[in-house]
Amino acid sequence: MSTFRNPFSAATRFLKGCVCGRHASAEDHQRSMIAEAVEPPLASDESRYRRVIESALMRAIFPEDAARRQFLKAVGASTAAAALATVLPIGTAVDAFAQGAAVEKKDLKVGFIPITCATPIIMAHPLGFYSKHGLNVEVVKTAGWAVIRDKTLNKEYDAAHMLAPMPLAITMGVGSNPIPYTMPAVENINGQAITLANVHKDKRDPKQWKGFRFAVPFDFSIHNYLLRYYVAEAGLDPDTDIQIRSVPPPEMVANLRAGNIDGFLGPDPFNQRAVFDGVGFIHILSKQLWDGHPCCAFAASREFVTTMPNAYAALLKSIIDATNHAQKAENRKQIAEAIAPTNYLNQPQLVLEQILTGIYADGLGSVQRDPNRIQFDPFPWEGFAIWILTQMKRWGQIKGEINYAAIARQVYLEADAGKAMRELGLTPPTGTKSIVVMGKAFDQTKPEEYIASFAIKRT
Amino acid sequence: MLKSLSWRAATLSVVLFVLFVGAWQLATSGGSTALPPGMDPEYAKLLGLGATQGKSAMPTPLEVGAKIWGHLRDPFYDRGTNDKGIGIQLAYSVARVALGYLIAVAVAIPLGFLIGMSPLLYRALDPFIQIMKPVSPLAWMPLALYTIKDSSTSAIFVIFICSLWPMLINTAFGVASVRKEWLNVARTLEVGPVRRAFTVILPAAAPTILTGMRISIGIAWLVIVAAEMLVGGTGIGYFVWNEWNNLSITNVIVAILFIGVVGMVLDLMLARAARAVTYPE
Questions:
Q1: Does the domain spanning A192-287 belong to CATH 3.40.190.10?
Q2: Quick one: closest CA in B to A359, which residue?
Q3: Is A107-190+294-452 a domain of CATH 3.40.190.10?
Q4: Would you call A360 and B46 a contact, using CB atoms and an 8 Å cutoff?
Q5: Does the beta carbon of A141 lie under 8 angstroms from any beta carbon of chain B?
Q6: A114 reaches B (C-beta below 8 A)
Q7: Closest B-chain CA to A109
Q8: Mutate which of B228, B239, B245, B248 to test chain A, going by most A C-beta atoms within 10 A?
Q9: Strand duo A374-376 + A188-190: pairing
Q10: Given this chain, do its domains A107-190+294-452 and A192-287 carry the same CATH topology?
């Protein structure tokens, strides 16, 4: 990560190895330098961008690292920085860098479903993340998942908020025409729950749920797969022992009140809304089934990605920037206030605050505290896609041979997310994601064995 | 006698209204303001009034009245893509209905004329019309979205297709059942076919055609709300959906009232037009 070290510090070496000789590597040296507060950690985006630009300039002026360090020793860092600033407009370069290359299309339309999972996409509008990256984005509220899919396929929207399995389903042509789709960023991880009607307060064990009617937001949703997984672990067959219907999230609470369903595994704010309106209680958070599961995603067609690479890159950067902002606990209250109005989620702020801060009423009479109730992490791990594909196959949504890794790589764009994160001065994760669902580890290199290991399946 | 009858009817309307609102008020008010025994105050703070005080989700008439006043005071505000005043939403819906409806008029009346004047065409096209007529306009929606690939055009198409059939059938029927004597008179006077169509058939069939148009506008207004709930974006249907999303029954009731009033106005306009072309036989 030498990109972010101070290029005006003679102590910084761009090449491998440690400058002072006290540390095994440059990274160790850097870490201890920060720990000793020799160099303050880079806080704001502005200063992160500035460092990236300055490093690039210094590299260009002094291709020989030794020459650069000699120069700095001779004139001092501040003189060098000032001299460089008079010749080269670093400020302008920083702005230009933040805005990326000239975008092909400035006015973009992004569709969203009014649920808290869409927080980064929505809040990027009132909090100005889109304009920061040189875009004029209109965020359009949409009625349901099928509509958002059709409107995006019709190119009414340039990109959209989708459920993580949807880009996979669209690419493979399950439930619609096959159209190459991509998912360059996850929106949120966790943040869902199983909510049951108040009459079932004594039935906390899923083994007692035979004959229950459940709602999930869409057939191709992590909600559907998690609910099926959960009841199947309790020995119930989700296709015969319980009923699962696709119900748009806002109708879930109304149906729960009317007694048409016994519960739902749905997105917030509707779990908390059911508690808020005294209709149901939160049985279990989805994070207790799989901590860190992906839920909603930022999706765009392959065509948009290839025909408008700069607009796509700017949009992706805005989303990742917003996601990063949303992840920080101290910003959550402000976000709840920003997305509560009619123009965005149209929900009571009190409900959104409970979800985002994780201090919430559970509907059973106590206040729960779980700051990780919902988290925002943009990295689209290919392992997520492979797990979702195994569940699609397990429940008969897709049949036949599947090249899991190839589809995952084609749709979940780890490389693009990583590139955007680096350009924003963030550190993308490396390696593979460890996935543990209800205590059972998932090996993404052995998807078929994973499916075969389940007793209840439709293959 | 007539005057006193309308007077009595008006009084009865008012009495019924007062009774209805009174019963509504009685049914929805109530609920204690105290917390249920044993509830943690910190917990109660996180809940809505519905959960803590047993307040009904149904608003009282007073709350609805206040909401209506709030909407009427500022009907044309625009606070972003997804939040516009009720006046703007209604204008969007009326514009969509008007556009779809006018296209339907432009197609249905000439076509209806042709069908009505030719018994052969009448019989040949009858099976198709009979099959298409009872199809719910919303059933066209997925097909329209798929082929037109634009949601607002699809909404207009759905309005077009639902207002087409009543007008087509009524025009054809009106034209076909112009009294033979009148046509014979025209023939003996050697009136040309174009002149005959405009001076004899059109005035004779006008009341039936207007009836068809009146039925159509009613259906079109019914359908636009459902269509907009489906495609979203703008319009009164979107407003209903958005408020339902927030489980705000008050705003849904307000929207119902507004939809009713606009529908009534549209219907009255065509009733006036129909009265203007009616003739005594």
A1: yes
A2: B46
A3: yes
A4: yes
A5: yes
A6: yes
A7: B81
A8: B245
A9: antiparallel
A10: yes
Residue B175, C-beta contacts closer than 8 angstroms, at least 6 positions apart: B112, B113, B115, B116, B117, B201, B205
Cβ–Cβ < 8 Å for A352, A269: yes
Binary contact (B81, A278; C-beta < 8 A): no
Cross-strand pairs, A188: A376
Residue of B46, B82, B241 lying closest to A361 (CB–CB): B46
Residues of chain B whose C-beta is under 8 A from some C-beta in A?
Answer: 38-40, 42-43, 46-48, 50-52, 54, 57, 79-83, 145-146, 149-151, 229-233, 241-247
What are the phi and psi torsion angles at A162 (to 5°)? -135, 165
Q: Which of B64, B72, B101 is nearest to B213 (CA)?
A: B101
Question: Hey, what CATH topology would domain B95-232 get?
Answer: MetI-like fold (1.10.3720)
Residue B84, CA distances (Å) to B81, B240, B281 in order: 7, 12, 50
Sheet arrangement for strand A213-216: A243-246, A213-216, A263-267, A192-197, A280-285
ipTM over 0.90? The verdict is no
d(CA A321, CA A421): 8
pLDDT in tens, chain B (281 residues): 557 888 999 999 999 999 998 888 888 776 555 666 667 777 777 777 666 666 666 788 888 888 888 888 888 887 777 778 888 889 999 999 999 999 999 999 999 988 988 889 888 988 888 888 888 888 888 888 778 878 788 889 999 998 999 999 999 999 888 888 888 888 888 888 888 888 888 888 899 999 999 999 999 999 888 888 887 778 898 888 888 888 888 888 999 999 999 999 999 999 999 888 888 77
